[in-house]
Queue: 3 jobs
Job 1
Amino acid sequence: MTSPDHSWDGSGELEYPRSDWDQYRQLDRLVDHWKRPGWGGGRRSYHWIIRFDDSPEVQRLAARCQARLGHLRTLDLAPVSSLHMTLQRVSFTDEITSAQALAVAAAANDRNAGLPPFAAIVGPLTGSADSVHFSVGPHRPFQLLRHAAAAATADVRGVAAVPAQPTNFDPHISIAYNHRPTAAKPVIEQVATVRSIPPVTVRIDAVSLVELRRDGHTYAWRQIAAVPLAGEG
């Protein structure tokens, strides 16, 4: 299926936002984000994330977009105070000790020491089968951060303990989650009307190891460690 392409056409646009959008608008059906294996019974997980709860530019952008999506009954809007990018899961908390989690954080600190802070472009809006989210790039610095996060887990627990993740990592920030199987067309057509809102640029200077939990149909976390990007640009 297709829908009108109202994508942002600002100068300096890279290829990945168009690729993200092209993949999204080919979907026929959306799925329930909350039906994921392993998360039942209040289970929690250690995750590496990039936090945007102290990024007013991203929060304002998300709020503007959410105001145009709120009437869609298949979506759960994410609180702007908990916006984040998931990089890599370390382990469910019942499969690792707190001491091991702290050791992973220390290993990540060593691995990230040579990575410099960088500017990232957040937007335009797009989505996937289970969420509505911002494209984020450029991709390469985020891929390096994800690799360092996975390698830090392997340093402490061995390669076999690193949770499997999709090979193709497309950095994104979710602002809404689909909560039931439904036709994709109405959501995609509404997202298309929001893509004219220009992206924002933010500075990425740290990653966080958090204890992630589900609170109803939202995510919440408790920070375990923050690891700065201390390399020279």
Job 2
Amino acid sequence: MAYDPYYELVPAPKEKPFDASRTALLIVDMQNMCAHPDGWMGRLAKAQGKPELLQERWDFVDEIQPRVRRLQDACRSSGIELIHVRVKYLTRDCRDGQRSFAEEQKAISSDARDDDFLEMVAPIGDEVIIDKTSAGTFNSTAIDQILRNLGIDRLLVTGIVTEGCVELTARDAADRGYYVTLVSDACASSTHIAHYDALQRMSDGGLIKVRTVDQLCEQIEAAKAQLKVA
């Protein structure tokens, strides 16, 4: 298990009091391309004669979807912004993406449906959709400016994969001064081992907080009740 003894010498960062008006829920890459067996990634596995290779990934995504949706609904009822992030290129051959992404895409043709979000957790109304051409969301989008325009300084991060696009997004956000909470049971990876390893690494030192959907829903309800009293 990853562990840095340095953090025994310094206090863990304090968690800021919950404020729905300054909070956003990020849903990372819950799209057909990489979260559905019929999407680009699933087609790549099938084309190479390995359709079973990513089965744990598909099962894991199916497992977290109801929890992601439950958190989405709790946030919607509390006025918390939902921001849906996906990989979407400007060009058909993906040449505007980072080099490794573009090379991967050449292996098998894309499909317009790859850009579609999974139905259970898809955007509703005018919720924000951000298209990226990199793994981390902050590297190739205007998300930082968008969040600051919205007055957001706290992010609840969900999606796939925990040790990849989710981790890069969460770490970049924390590095820019956002209060970041990783939603442990609303993220998934190709393997559970990779997922749990990433959770431990990201939470080491406490800069990125880790909470479950149940814990966050309780926080959201408590914040709503406090507002009614006030």
Job 3
Amino acid sequence: MFTKIEIERFRGIRHASIEGFKQINLFFGKNNCGKSSLLESLFLASGLSNPLLPISVNIMRGYSKAHLNDLKLDFYNLDSSQPIHIRMENEEKRDLNISLFEQNQNNVSINADDKNILSNVQEGKYGLRFDFKINGKHFESQIRFDSANSAEATSIVPKQYVESFKCTYLNPKFDFNASIQGLKNILQNKDEHFIVEGLKIIEPRVKDFIFADNEMLVDIGLAKRIPVNMMGDGARKIVSLLTAVYVCKDGALLVDEISNGFHYSVMCSLWKVLINAAVRNNTQLFVTTHDNDSIKGLRNAALNEFDDIVAAFKLLKTSDDELKAYHYSLESLDYSINQEIEVR
């Protein structure tokens, strides 16, 4: 599991160095303090060889353009002269540099090895280059766009490296349909009990669920099973969260704004189900919130039972755009809340 991260020149973060991660990690703070950017940094470093990820996180923010100036939005102060740098540590050391390239004339390498072939850039091309190291071993990947048609891209990844680490990012506007295949795997493996347990947070009458015509139908004691969509956003989000924990077994799940779609009264029960699912599947959680009820829910769910696997961090950005993280124990979260620290 990841224990620390260092970030340089990514979005609005000039520099950040955060350590002390545990299995369950909650980040809280004001809007625009860097919570989402922190999760996105974790996501990029979890898929080192995939140069599509910066485009993917922009799409999750609702921005799908990929012209040259659009790619510069990921760089601190829009300055792409220096690379984005992300360094993380778990059982291995991951080191990633993301740079922007632009070429208006042919630049042909005379060497034949794979690395130099990756460095060839044709006229009218621009894109992102991932230079990354795993335990000191260097690799490179690229995504190239044609200035005449930014909707099409070419991705080049090293054949010598295959990412084995599993990581999922759930943004506030999650797509429930993306959970369908994972849910089918859960049913096939007879592990549906913890999905049912989660759904009972929203509807205590839930007994089981099945799939019919690629639709999730839930038994709540009526004459017929009902589509989970009819149970509301909270039910669908619980299903997506627990499915993602299951899919990311031995990996990491990143959840942005966990309280969206939930009433404050269910937050403690939600955290209990999530923590137990994470422990069962050896999944590391990184979760953000700007909501006091989410913080209280975690404290109440974990205090005296999961103290040793939970860490909470208050995020603050300094005047020179350094992201600071202040570690709170579960006991000290009471002080944070009682002092009415502005989180919203």
